[in-house]
């Protein structure tokens, strides 16, 4: 069992939207893919018995899921579809302004509806046809090593629940919005999907825990919080940015550092605040080539 540990106090409502604890808590998390998130007393949904029951029901779908089978649809309520609509209305204009071209092209391919939470089954079918990646449901948060190693086999372990309706722009753990709007879309780009696979392969070759920490920081500053220049403007390709309107609106305040992955591997970060430091590549091609070479070298070392 793993617990959510991020406080839900009001001034963090947007700040924590992006938190992906699978990467941030390298030493924590459950060792197998069937762990269930146990809600902390200050989780927005803690006192909502119906929400907790639905979370358990959705977790149960994942627990009984067998890889390769069709993914069962999650029983979202009208209230939860409304949460999606609210988030989508905030994200759509933010994407047009701040998302990189590679992401926008991938987003088009997935054809999300503005007022319905996409079912994992459908997103998976489209992503798989594009990049060969499979999205598989998991009940909760798994250890970074489990999560990252699955990428090597082209599998993205995906939570299916959505955040509580009382805080549509806040979630203390990655939910279906982060998974699908962030990771799902980027996996519908064959080049970003390839980088995800390479991360997984590099993790598989990494036994040492300090080395795993360095690699997970590189993942954080690229796959989660990567930015790059397009026509002189800073654009996001990181899933933590692209799944949060708050993060996208704040990213121009960050100190931009040159795309030095050794430096990124040493850079500490605080997942509970907007990121004050981002590593910015000069172009998508430059990011792709540099990260690809870095991960390939890592595997060979
Ligand atoms: Fe993430």
Description:
It is a single chain. The protein is 49% helix and 10% strand. It starts with a strand and ends with a helix. The strands form 3 sheets. Strands 6-5-8-7 form a 4-stranded mixed β-sheet. It has a two-stranded parallel sheet with strand order 1-2. It has a two-stranded parallel sheet with strand order 3-4. Helix 8 (190-204) packs antiparallel against helix 9 (209-224) and helix 8 (190-204) packs parallel to helix 13. The model is unreliable at 1-18 (pLDDT under 50). It has helices at 21-24, 49-63, 78-98, 101-110, 120-131, 144-152, 176-186, 190-204, 209-224, 239-242, 245-250, 261-266, 284-300; strands spanning 2-3, 37-38, 134-137, 155-158, 227-230, 233-236, 255-258, 277-281. The protein is built from 13 helices and 8 strands. With 301 residues, it is of the alpha/beta class. The protein binds fe (ii) ion. Fe (ii) ion is lined by residues 20, 174, 178, 182-183, 224, 239-240. Residues 20, 174, 178, 182-183, 224, 239-240 line the site of fe (ii) ion.
What is the element layout, followed by pairings?
Elements (H helix, E strand, L loop, with lengths): L1 E2 L17 H4 L12 E2 L10 H15 L14 H21 L2 H10 L9 H12 L2 E4 L6 H9 L2 E4 L17 H11 L3 H15 L4 H16 L2 E4 L2 E4 L2 H4 L2 H6 L4 E4 L2 H6 L10 E5 L2 H17 L1
Parallel strand pairs: 1-2, 3-4, 5-8, 7-8
Antiparallel strand pairs: 5-6
């Amino acid at each position: 069992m793993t617990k959510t540990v991020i406080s839900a106090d009001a001034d963090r409502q947007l700040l924590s939207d992006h938190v992906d604890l699978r990467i941030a808590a390298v030493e924590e998390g459950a060792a197998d893919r069937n762990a269930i998130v146990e809600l902390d007393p200050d989780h927005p949904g803690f006192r909502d018995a119906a929400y907790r029951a639905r979370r358990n029901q959705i977790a149960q779908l994942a627990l009984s899921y067998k890889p390769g089978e069709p993914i069962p649809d999650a029983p979202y309520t009208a209230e939860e579809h409304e949460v999606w609509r609210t988030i989508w209305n905030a994200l759509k204009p933010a994407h047009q302004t701040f998302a990189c071209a590679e992401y926008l092209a991938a987003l088009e391919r997935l054809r999300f509806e503005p007022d319905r939470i996409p079912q994992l089954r459908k997103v998976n079918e489209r992503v798989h046809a594009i990049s060969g990646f499979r999205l598989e449901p998991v009940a909760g948060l798994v250890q970074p090593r489990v999560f990252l190693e699955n990428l090597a086999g082209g599998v993205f372990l995906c939570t299916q629940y959505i955040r509580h309706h009382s805080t549509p722009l806040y979630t203390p753990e990655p939910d279906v919005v982060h998974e699908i709007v962030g990771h799902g879309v980027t996996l519908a780009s064959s080049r970003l999907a390839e980088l995800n696979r390479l991360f997984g392969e590099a993790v598989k070759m990494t036994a040492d825990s300090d080395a795993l920490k360095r690699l997970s920081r590189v993942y954080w500053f690229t796959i989660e919080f990567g930015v790059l220049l397009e026509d002189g403007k800073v654009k996001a390709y990181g899933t933590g940015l692209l799944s949060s309107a708050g993060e996208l609106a704040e990213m121009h305040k960050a100190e931009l550092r040159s795309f030095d992955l050794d430096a990124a591997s040493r850079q500490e970060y605080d997942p509970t605040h907007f990121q004050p430091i981002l590593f910015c590549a000069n172009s998508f091609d430059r990011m792709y080539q540099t990260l690809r070479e870095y991960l390939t070298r890592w595997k060979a070392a």
